[in-house]
Design goal:
The chain has helices at about 10-45, 50-100, 100-105, 110-135, 135-150, 155-200, 200-205, 210-235, 240-265, 270-310, 320-330, 380-390, 410-415, 430-435, 445-455, 460-465, 480-495, 510-520, 560-565, 570-580, and strands spanning about 340-350, 360-365, 370-375, 395-400, 405, 420, 430, 470, 500-505, 530-535, 545-550, 555-560. The protein has about 575 residues and is of the alpha/beta class. The chain has 2 domains: about 10-310, ABC transporter type 1, transmembrane domain (ABC transporter transmembrane region fold, Up-down Bundle); about 320-325 and about 335-580, Rossmann fold. Helix 1 (about 10-45) packs parallel to helix 5, helix 4 (about 110-135) runs antiparallel to helix 6 (about 155-200) and helix 5 runs antiparallel to helix 10 (about 270-310). The longest helix has about 50 residues, at about 50-100. It is elongated.
Length: about 575
Amino acid sequence: MKKLLCYMKGYRKECVFGPLFKLAEALLELLIPYVVMNLINVGIEKGDLPYIFSRTALLALMGFVGLGFSVTAQYFSAKAAVGFCARTREALFSHIQHLGFKEIDELGTSSLLTRLTSDMNQIQTGVNLTLRLFLRSPFIVFGSMIFAFTIDREAALTFAVAIPFLLILVFGIMLGTVPLYKKVQQKLDRVLLKTRENLLGVRPLRALCKEEEEIAEFDSENRALNRSQKLVGKISALMNPLTLVTVNGAIALLIYVGALKVQSGILTQGAVIALYNYMTQILVELIKLANLIINITKSVACANRVSAVLAVSPAMKEGEGAGSFRAEEKRDGSEALPPAVEFRDVGFKYAKGGENSLDGISFKAEKGETIGIIGGTGAGKTTLVHLIDRFYDATEGEIFIDGIPISSYRFGELRKKVGIVRQAAALFRGDIRSNLRFGNEEATEEEMLEALQAAQALSFVQKKPGGLDFVLEQGGKNLSGGQRQRLTVAMALVKKPEILILDDSSSALDYATDLALRRAIRALPYSPTVFLVSQRASSLVGADRILVLDEGKLVGSGKHGELLSSCTVYREIVESQSRAS
């Protein structure tokens, strides 16, 4: 929680004026029972109408002034809370953008979404309430006790006994619920994860008739969240009745003692009413304080979750730049160009994985070559190409691009050299033009059209209303699967990368379009080195070299014809696809 306070800078004035105006309102509230006491003792008892009218007008004036103080305090508190949370949310989002795939995998996408939305909203509410009420409620509680002692010390002893007991009660419940609220948020993460999975996979779930199973799993997670929330709710619910019983008991005792003193002539009726009003104020403020503490408890739990994400440092460190490596490199005088990409005994294991996903991978890809990658499901194809763009760092061995260790490149420098089209088409809400400029912000319209032409997307884009200005829904939902894939290929081509990775990015294309796309990529004037991941052996027939993966190991490397005779795994894949067709 303390780590987040740095984002409160710039709102010091609001953090001072918010509580200050609230304390001014509280002071007026403490003076009201005194005015009422004098109104009864002087005005009503003596029948002094001018005095009654003047005290009534004073009470009305105090009410209006108090309202002004309250609105002003609310303005400053809300401004500070909203500004603080906007800065914190921005810092959290920026931090997440700099985390590697490893850290995002460990934290979980659904958990990060919860922390950016639900947790941040709870923190904002907690900050707002804290600035307005955290000082006001104790001020009125202890102020009421002090004012009560100025009226009658013996009667005020009731306050001195009741207040400490109530504080112990309130803070005891608070300390007991803090860890439970943390568990509630964790279970909320799991419910959101299950919801997200179902929304993203709604089509295959319906196709496989898995709705009932998913509903049952969701119900299980939802019931677990429900049980945790009920447990916390039951403990928190004890606060109001216990405080009410304690305060009402104190009020009954106060009225009994006050009545005896009024009968004896020691106290006036106005003084008893003033004491009763102060005890009522304590009751109201303690209820507010109890609700405030519940909100603060939730907010602290949420703030700790946000702080935990901000405390995560990316394990992947940025290099000093390829130029720095070249300056230090000792050349042997050879003019031979280094390979575009080279793997030297590379192994990789995911953070939560038991065994290596890749093991002992070694190969070279020369400039301008097309390298096909094939293998069964879970063979490590996608993992391999993710290492080239440094989405993950290899856990064993070394990777070189243009003869330079991949860890020496700056991230921006590396991403300019490498263009990747992932399995799932990623398009953003906005027009086609803005989506293409994700690949190259300075791309001209001519360059965009060239990229669309090469990606076999120009024909359907020109038919859309507005052409490049056609607005896409989030994720390209208003396009077909093949259209989305071709647009994402165009996004990669518009940056004219030296290394182009197509990770099963033609799975939704028909054979003719797939063939035309591969031919267009081969004909690109800047001759990129292409890594073509595909489930179709027919898509890789024309590749300069095909890498065959099986359970994370490289079991074959060569051209299509060579592999048919030398690699059992490749031959089985080709034969199975031939039978299926």
